Amino acid sequence: MFQLKPKTATAKDDFVERQRQERQARAQQRSAASATASDTAAVTPATSTPTAATQSASPLAAAGSRSPSLTTPTPTTTSSLTPQATTAQATWSMRSSAASVADTPRPDVPTTSTTTKKYVQPSVDMQIGSALVIQKWTRMFLVKRNLAQKERLTIDLQLAVLQQALAVQSHADSATNNPNVATLVAIPIAATLHAMVARLLFIYHPKHDYPRLVALCKLILASMDAPNNLPSFAALALQRDLTVVWIRQMKRLLVLCVYHVHQASLQLAASGLIATEADAPPAPSAVVPPTHPMSPAIPKAPSTPTPTGLLPSSLPSYFNATRVAAAALSTLPPASSPSSTGPPPQPPLSSNTAAGLPLTSLRMLATFTDASTWKLSQQSPEPLKQSLAKISSTFLQHLNQPQPQTASAKLTLDVAFSSSNFSCETIPVIRTTAVAFLSSFLQAASSPKRNPHIPSAALVISAAMTLFIRPIIASRFSRELVLSFVLEVLSIPALFPRLAAVWPAEGPALFEKLEFLQHVINALEDSQTLKIIFYTLEGNYTLCLIANLVSLFGMHLANARALVVDTPAAPASPSGSAKSAPARALTDRFVEVLHQLLVHDKSYVRKKQTSHANFHPLFGWFSGVTDATLSEAFPQITLQLQNLWKRDVLRAIFADLFKPAFDSPSPSSSSSSSSSIVSEGTPTAPGGTIKKQSLGSKLSAIAHGGSSSSIANTADSLLCMRVRDACQLYETLAGTLVKLKAEVLNALSYASDLLPRLWRFLSTVGPTGNLKVFLDSAVVPEKEPFISILVVFCDACSHLFLVLDDEEIYNMQKPFSMTDLANLSKFLNQFLFTMIWQSPLPRLEALLAAIDADTTARLLRSSHRLLTLLYERDARRPFTSGDHWLIPELKSSAFDSDWRGKGSRSRALLRYIPHCIPFRRRVDLFRKQIDATKGDRDDADARPSMLVRVRRNAVLDDGFRQLCNTNGDTMRGVIRVKFTNAQGLDEAGIDQDGVFKEFLEETIKQAFDPNLGLFRTTSSNLLYPSLTSRLQEDHVKLFEFVGRMLGKALYEGIVVEVPFAHFFLSKLLGRHNGFDELSSLDPDLYKNLAFIKRYDGDVEDLGLTFSVDEDLFGTVVTNDLKPGGRAVSVTTANRILYVHLMADFRMNTQLRVQSQAFIHGFRTVIPDSSLRIFSSSELQKLISGDSVDFDVSDLRRHTTYYGGYHDSHRTVQWLWECVAELDTKERCLFLKFVTSCSKPPILGFAHLHPTFSVRCVEDQEDEHVIIDESITGTLRGLFSGGRDTNRLPTASTCFNLLKLPNYKKKKTLKEKLRYAINAGAGFELS
């Protein structure tokens, strides 16, 4: 080892001299410490026995005078220091010396240097110095510990005495001639508390002294509410010599309270548990300081305690003053007797930190930060009140302003602690501490499973909220503090529902009294501030902020309902009435702020939406982080948000639409023709309530860049802006909260006839009204400021029409009249056509590629959905007439030109509004698409083909066996059929598509026969899948096979007379069936559900549940309409859901397996995209032909003749004359007789396959010869004269062939023809 040596002799001498001086100083310090310990152990009677003057003033004066930094609080108290004070001073001097020694560089200790790296062995002097330092600090620690133990014992004894003294002094009847009682009465409580606070702050340690702090604070609070005859603790601030000292002491004490509130919030956040009793630590044993060789002898407490349970019968000599008061306690009744109304006895103290609620600390903070709550201030004159208010303001300012040396929003514990153990700790300022505790407490309090009992919850919440709000009020709602309130309080998840659970009465009244909503809206109106708020909170906590703002707005409406009711019918001034204007302005600003927050939230959610993340109960699939606190609060947050679309809130936000002006019928409904929507001119105002020209011209200033001065003074313009802002709010809300979108639209649909009023409003927009402004902006709708109104209207109406039944629409005409529906459909049809047909091609392609990207795309989607519902409803039960759905501006030549070119516009029309194109034109496009897949019809070898052999008595079984597993390409190819007779021999005949047609017709006829059990009929004889189909073996594949055969018939253009129920046709088109489709399946159930829907009484009395019984082959099976539905009763509130679930079960759930198999087979032949251009009724026409009288001349033009017949032949001419003379029914029978279908092809007989033909036959001709095209047969038909015969006309339907004898008379031909078509003869193979 190496030893560091001085370089010169002078340096060495200086080093030795310094060591000697230090050893002398340490010896003097040890002597002083020993003397102090001796003085403490031997207290003289003179100092332990109070003088007469001192005893008359206070028995506790001597004990209270040991404070190291404070003088005696009362003038009668002696100013001399007791031995205990001497001990304290010695302790402080030792600490100071130790600190100075520790801070002074010592030569005997090696220092760390970047250049010196060698270890130096300490010298003997260095070792001796280190030992002395260790001894010094050890003795100092022991002295400090012993002193703290004695001080704690003293505080415990004084607390017990003061509790009884306060109880006695609070009641004059308690003062008797008992000298002990008189002793308690003579105690100056305020001065004694002051001394005790000083003593506690001197030795305070949070781990050991928190219960004492709680008990002391309770006594201070009790003194603040003491009767008039007792001095308040705050009265010490009025004494000139104590004012500064008392204020400094209270600052330190209040910082300690902030510290413990902060610790409680951390404990609550970590455990989520709330103690069952506030500030109630576990009961300890008697507090007796342990003995130590270095401490004076202290006698132990006796085994039998006094009535207080704290005071020993014998006390050390230096506790003589306290012993006098303790003796007086033995003669007093318990303080908790019924006659006493003073403070209850406090729980025993503990050396452990309390795990309960810091209610006392919160009360201390709430009390001393507002002088108006002090009884002393309430009973003082005004000048004194102002002085006390300044003192409390000083406390509040101190607790909200961090110390200069600490970080932002932090308090240093050096201010509170006299010891150095915690001097480095910092805690948040009182506002942040209060909100942290509030958040943790509300989270724990909202879990009833973990917290079955929460005592004093209202007091805790009241104190915490008061501490946070009081600085805001003191600053006169400064913008900075209000924004702090928004970020720290209003972002607490489910703040107001949780407050309502523990603070139901005072909470709402407090926020409404302070008009917090208005101040918050004022602070959030700046767009930049909103961005900062959002990026600070992000998506989930922004949603919490929105929910709490909605709750604040609900409180505002509840307290100011008179200001948001409907305005009078008389014309209003531009600013509205004097009373309603402020409330209306606040509502407008609230809507704007909420909309901006939702816009930011929607953008955030769109970035986070994904199908590979967690499921968010409001956002859907969401990749954002959601903590456990939010997950627990989501049900309550949902309830808060639901208030935004309650009826009273909707009426407040859309208050302008509920004015009497919009009660009158719509201007468009007064016109007799739906074409008035796009007509020019200025219609008159209906009933004189709305001047359309006035409103339109004012709106035009906004829509087309009018001057702001003309807009500012226009009431109608302000009305339109309000409606627009409200619609933007709900549009963004539905787009952000995707899981609540149905609820939002449901509320808008049923909200006090909002939709018809909104329609009347839309009809008044623009210079001329009649929705012209929207039609003009259809090409670039995002430039129209009111386009969001149209989006919300279309979405809500689409939701509504899914619920309305035929009785409401056609008979009751609710909510729209028939004229309104015609005008609405006409407008939407024209609007979509303009948006698609007149848009620039690049813009149109971008729009179709990003259907949900922007406002224009959402408008296209919303208007298209509503228009489709109206068109389907009109197709099933018309409310329009003529060519209502056609667009006159759409020319066939322009459409064909675009179709032959790139075809973007024409294909977009077919995708969105195919009904604007004539039906026959769409059928022609469909047939061309089908023919394009066939290729060259004459080249049969180019198409896939297969041969099917079927027995005539087992057509369905053999066809199913051979074709059930074929793919789409095979079914679209050529299928040749060979019939075999009963002997298994092939039948004669040439398959020129006629044999396959016969096989197809026979297969479909057998498959759709209700007796087979695959299908059944409605009361209107319409077909749909049967539930009993499961009796058939392999019924799912059988349904798939039948679907293929029907698709093959449609693919080949073969018309088959199969009438389907309307709801099943909708399934074939891939559309969902709503309640209104149920009438096509079960009219009786439809009527019963409609009755429940409109039932005026209590629906629960009907005894219905969300379940339905089903009879399956004698076994009753109960099906739940929703999970646990058999235990859920149908009520008035949920009957709409029951109606829709029942309809969905009947049409979709029950028939899901059969329908899916049939549709799958059908779509293997016919692509789904090819059929979307048709409605359900149009698809029925496509399958079975048009239900109209056919054109005889058209059939004649497309007829082929054989056997010598020609168009000019006499018998042929008689034939067409007879057919023309038949009535409509007989002509349909004739068509069925020759083609097996009573309906003509959609596109006419030119598309009949095979072509209709007429052949001349004679009596002796072989009926099994198909067509005689030889020269002999032709000549025989040309030159043979007609003759009367008994033979009837016959037909081969597989070839669409009429075999007509060459009759001699027209009368005979007509009679035979009528007999044949009415008898149904001629269904045989020729």
From TrEMBL:
It holds the Pfam family HECT. One of its GO terms (biological process) is ubiquitin-dependent protein catabolic process. It is an enzyme of class 2 (transferase). The active site is at C1294 (glycyl thioester intermediate). Residues 967-1326 form the HECT domain. Its EC number is 2.3.2.26. InterPro entries: E3A/B/C-like, HECT_dom, Hect_E3_ubiquitin_ligase. Residues 26-91, 664-676 have a biased composition (Low complexity). This is HECT-type E3 ubiquitin transferase. It comes from Capsaspora owczarzaki (strain ATCC 30864).
